[in-house]
Design a protein that fits this description.
five-stranded mixed beta sheet; binds flavin-adenine dinucleotide; binds FE2/S2 (inorganic) cluster; five-stranded antiparallel beta sheet; 18 helices; alpha+beta; 2 domains; Enolase-like, domain 1; Ubiquitin-like (UB roll); 18 strands
């Protein structure tokens, strides 16, 4: 039996835990406001808000309900558009902005946009125009009225920031950034008070925290004895094997708190296997280590998918173009299993989708040394946002006095597996940074890859692309000007 709060009602269901939240709300609760578009996480028509208790507050994030197993709703607050509608039938601030700015059009995708923009108002992200647009990066409108939707997003952002800067003035705060994990608790009740006063969410949201605390005590997680398959956020599995997932017996790892952390431990940074891409974005540790974190991770999927996509899911899916895999290969990360076995990520990939792991092993954590001085990630895809890579690459370097002391380079989309470039990395170590070094590296790099021609480009194009992206690492990191 799975219990959670759906809008303003506590519900329980004995449907299979692998059934999707989308099907539950539409076909079992008759809440038809949540739409079905692609069922693959691409269109955003099924976007809902998911609230969960974190550090004494309720944190809301958007998710695509078509890829979300019911098991991942356990003990949470699931909000569909019916749950934000006003009792008096009037429009909420977000709905009003969409209508006034002519953002509704045929209406099909509109609910998804409304949910994403409502999420923007109550989540922990910084409130600015850029973030308001970023909040709808997982929503596709086939009527293509993006400019009017963009105007609605700006108007909502104005409404939120105006009030917030008033509050900041009152409390003599100069900066009302709600981004850091440490101030989330304080920001939360203020955020809800504001959201309720502005009719962004209904008043019952103020009671959700206490209701979730109560719910947690009587809502144990289901543990499968000796599990042989696992599911994290479901963003790969529910696209690849949706039917099988519904009745399958995979162990759900997404909400295992022992797998959901990011911490420093001596010379290492350790990350729980179920940490999501959004968790990395929100982590002060990652923000300090990676100055371009926002820029780089915004190239990975979309806001709702980043809210669900776990690191272990990305590694184990073993796609040759997995972005987080390329990222952590270049950090020379190690993965640690439930059996306590530890192996370098670079030794995890034996062949296409063949992994150095037994079927009952699952990843518990990932760790890497923070002894690099430079890190860069490059990705080229057909569309800049919400698209998988044609080719990606990442690099970490330890540079002292223009000498490369240590180097790790990865590349995706140029072989059947995500590649750690052994020879390239080895060649760079001990070299001075110069145009000559970089042009020599390209010759070695080209011997390590074996791209094939496919819909994402010809083999020759991918070779050229990787060469250019490799140079881009040095241009980006060291302001290097190259004439090769
Ligand atoms: C619309 C869309 C856009 C996307 N865009 C991108 C993109 O830009 N870049 C990118 O890299 N990916 C992208 N993806 C792919 C996907 O989001 C990522 O690969 C994600 O990290 C998978 O994580 P998950 O938790 O959802 O995996 P799941 O689907 O839950 O699982 C994937 C695999 O990992 C296994 N697994 C999960 N957790 C563990 C564990 N702890 N130990 C062992 N095995 C485990 C599962 O058994 C399964 O085999 C996209 C997906 C969608 C739907
Ligand atoms: S139906 Fe398209 S993202 Fe879920
Ligand atoms: S309003 Fe018609 S698809 Fe967006």
């Amino acid at each position: 039996m799975i219990q959670f709060i759906l809008n303003n009602q506590t519900v329980e269901t004995d449907l299979p835990k692998g059934a999707t939240v989308l099907d539950f709300v539409r076909y079992h609760k008759n809440l038809k406001g949540t739409k079905i578009g692609c069922r693959e996480g691409d269109c955003g028509a099924c976007t809902i808000l998911v609230g969960e208790l974190k550090g004494g507050a309720v944190e809301y994030r958007t998710q695509t309900s078509c890829l979300m197993p019911l098991a991942n709703a356990r003990g949470k607050h699931i909000v569909t558009v019916e749950g934000i509608n006003r009792a008096d039938g009037e429009l909420t601030e977000v709905q009003r902005a969409m209508v006034d700015e002519s953002g509704t059009q045929c209406g099909f995708c509109t609910v998804g946009f409304v949910m994403s923009l409502t999420g923007f108002c109550i989540d922990e992200t910084e409130k600015n125009y850029e973030q308001s647009i970023s909040a709808i990066d997982g929503n596709i409108c086939r009527c293509t009225g993006y400019k009017s939707i963009e105007r609605a997003a700006f108007r909502i952002c104005d409404a939120v920031t105006r009030r917030r800067s008033d509050d900041a003035e009152k409390s003599n705060e100069s900066n009302i950034k709600a981004g850091s994990l440490s101030d989330r608790k304080g920001a939360n009740s203020e955020t809800f008070d504001f959201a309720m006063s502005k009719d962004i969410v209904p008043d019952y949201f103020s009671e959700i925290k206490n209701r979730l605390v109560e719910l947690h005590t009587g809502n144990p997680k289901s543990q499968i004895p000796n599990p042989k398959s696992f599911v994290g956020g479901g963003t790969d599995l529910y696209v690849q094997r949706p039917e099988e997932m519904i009745h399958g017996s995979a162990q759900n790892l997404f909400d295992d708190t022992a797998l959901r952390f990011i911490e420093e431990n001596g010379e290492f940074v350790e990350v729980g296997a179920s940490a999501t891409v959004t968790d990395l974005l929100a982590s002060p540790i990652f923000q300090n280590l990676f100055p371009n974190l926002q820029k780089h991770l915004k190239l990975v999927s979309s806001t709702p998918i980043r809210n669900m996509a776990t690191l272990a899911g990305n590694f184990v899916n073993a796609s040759p173009i997995g972005d987080m895999t390329a990222w952590f290969l270049a950090l020379d990360a190690a993965i640690i299993f439930n059996t306590r076995r530890e192996i370098p990520l670079r030794e995890f990939y034996l062949g296409y989708k063949t992994l150095a792991k037994t079927e009952d092993e699952f990843i518990t954590k990932i760790r890497f040394r923070r002894n690099f001085s430079h890190f860069n990630f490059e990705k080229v895809s057909k569309r800049t946002y919400l698209d998988i890579s044609s080719v990606n690459t990442a690099i970490s370097l330890r540079v002292e006095n223009d000498l490369i002391i240590d180097a790790h380079v990865s590349a995706g989309g140029v072989a059947p597996i995500p590649l750690y470039l052994w020879k390239t990395s080895e060649f760079l170590r001990g070299k001075e940074i110069s145009g000559e070094t970089i042009s020599q590296v390209n010759e070695i790099l080209q011997t390590e890859i074996s791209p094939i021609s496919d819909v994402r480009g010809s083999a020759d194009y991918k070779r050229l692309l990787l060469r250019q992206l490799f140079i881009a690492h040095f241009v980006e990191l060291l302001g290097f000007e190259l004439s090769i």
